[in-house]
Amino acid sequence: MSTRIFIGVMLFLLIFVVVGYVLLTEGLLDVQQKELSPIGPRGPALGRMQTFKAGQDGRSIENGALLFQDYCTSCHGDKGEGVPGKGPQLNPYLFTTRFPELRAANYPNSLRNFVKIATAGGRPDYSTYWANKGETYAAPMQTWSQFFGGPLRDDQIEYVTDYIMSWEALAKQLPVGPVFVGIGNNLAAELPAGDAARGQRLWNKEENYASGKPAPCSACHSLQAGQTLVGPSLAGLGARAATTVPDQDAVAYVRRAIQAPSEYIVPGGNFAAGANSLMPGNLGNDMSPQDLSDLIAFLLTLR
Amino acid sequence: MSFFSVGVIVILSFMGTSAYLVQPPPETEVGFEFMRPERLGPHDIRRISFAEMLPGAYDTAALDETLKADSPRLHEKLEELQHLIERYQNPNLAPDKQLTNGHAIVKIEDWLKDEAGLSVLRRVTLTLEWDGMAQPFVKTIFVHRDAIYSIEE
Predict the structure, then answer these.
(1) Chain B residues with CB inside 8 Å of A91's CB?
(2) Handedness of CA B22, A71, B52, B61 (dihedral sign)
(3) Under an 8 A CB cutoff, do B121 and A65 touch?
(4) How many alpha carbons fall within 13 Å on the CB side of residue A102?
């Protein structure tokens, strides 16, 4: 009898040892899981399960980054930095300001769920982020989940959410607020004196706009007379700008052509689809008033 | 009617098999071999480790010898890519199956870093160019440090 009790106790202890060994080596303990985050500090020795979990999270972030690139960057920028006039900054504003504000207002959900809900269901109204800084957006965010009529499956919503959440660790190191606010379509904004030499450097892409982006003009406009790329040649623009549209001087004509391109379509070519110019109407979003003024000054030297 | 339905299903099923062999354009084939969306192929760039994926822009037609020293496996993968392209430089192929004088530019960028400043996510952009192209073929993937593709072996 005592032998059976002894064997039973030994087997009981053995089970504890085996289970403990598995928990430690497979990385199944909570404390081990917490040490591992896709972009956080990595434990010195990863268990097998931790490695698989990290791999799965990594794949999800990869997929999310690709989806974000395809669907989100046009409004929120390559890395969530926001696009003036199109979409607000996500990184770091969402993490450092917006969500703490929601928490302070007793928002009951987690940050991850907030991101997921906003991604899946869009926003019901216009964003007012930085409205006091003159930031306005063209439209409220659309719905993205197929459940709400958007294009993305549930797993794809999870991927995008994981990618956005992967910014959180570094968010506190980034500046908050719109780094750059372009002149956009604001035709009333006062322009400083233009520098034609800098305008030429912008045209030649030897220098970037204040937003850091290059001037895209030469992709569609040639400076050679009679050469049509997508838009009309700008050769001789300085000579004709003052007389092309009645009541517009040369600067006003070129300015309106850039900031409101559908107002006047150059005749004699296929430069419009219906009443809308083929020239994008948001070019001003990447330009500061100085960029615009310098570019105009350069274009008016073309005679 | 039932014979007709079965016939339609059989024909459509056959057309969906590899035996029917609808081949995509060669640039798509090369892009697929180098960056598969699912299950890595033998030539996939993710066959090499994250650490070996050194950021930079590499032209497969003019590979730098220093890369061979810095990351021999990346150099090897880029050479493989050039060989994949050269498979479509056979004059016996139909003109639309050729990548004459084709070469690739592979750009590897650090996309996301951790708090310690170490890269955790890289963007890899493949741009294929060849004579007579209407526009270059461009394909992008992201690679995460923890994605451990080696466990797919």
Answers:
(1) none
(2) positive
(3) yes
(4) 15
Inform me whether the C-beta atom of residue B118 falls under 8 Å from chain A C-beta atoms. Answer: no
Where are the domains positioned within chain B? 25-152
User: Would you give per-residue pLDDT tens digits along chain A (303 residues)?
Assistant: 789 999 999 999 999 999 988 887 777 776 665 555 444 444 444 677 777 888 899 999 999 999 999 999 988 888 998 877 778 888 888 898 889 988 999 999 999 999 999 999 998 766 655 544 455 666 788 899 999 999 999 999 999 999 999 999 888 776 665 556 788 888 888 888 999 999 999 998 888 887 777 788 888 898 988 888 888 999 999 888 888 888 889 999 999 999 989 888 888 888 887 778 888 888 888 888 889 999 999 999 998
Q: Is B145 on the interface with A (CB under 8 A)?
A: yes
**Whole-number pLDDT of residue A209:** 85
Comparing alpha-carbon positions, the chain B residue that sits nearest to A70 is B140
Question: Distance between CA atoms of B120 and A40, rounded to whole angstroms?
Answer: 10
Yes or no, beta carbons of A66 and B114 under 8 Å apart: no
The domains of chain A, with CATH numbers, are 48-171 (1.10.760.10), 196-299 (1.10.760.10)
What is d(CA A101, CA A97) in angstroms, rounded to the nearest whole number? Answer: 6
Give the best residue of A36, A39, A42, A49 to mutate against chain B (max B CB count within 10 A): A39
Longest dimension (CA), chain A: 114
CB pairs under 8 A between A and B: 59
Reply yes or no: is the peptide bond before residue A92 cis, omega within 30 of 0: yes
Give the A window 33-62 contacts with B, CB below 8 Å: 38-41, 51-52, 54-55, 57-59, 61-62
**Residue spans of beta strands (DSSP E) within A138-278:** 272-273, 276-277
DSSP symbol at B112: E
Pick from A57, A69, A169: CB nearest B114 = A169
Which one of B126, B135, B141, B146 would you mutate to disrupt binding with A, by most A Cβ within 10 Å of its Cβ?
B146
List Cβ neighbours of A249 (8 Å cut-off, separation of 6 or more).
Answer: A242
| A91–chain B Cβ distance below 8 A for any pair | no
With a CB cutoff of 8 Å and minimum separation 6, the contacts of A51 are: A27, B148, B151
Nearest Cα of chain A lies from the Cα of B11 at a distance, in angstroms, of 31
What does residue A213 show for φ and ψ, rounded to 5 degrees? -95, 150
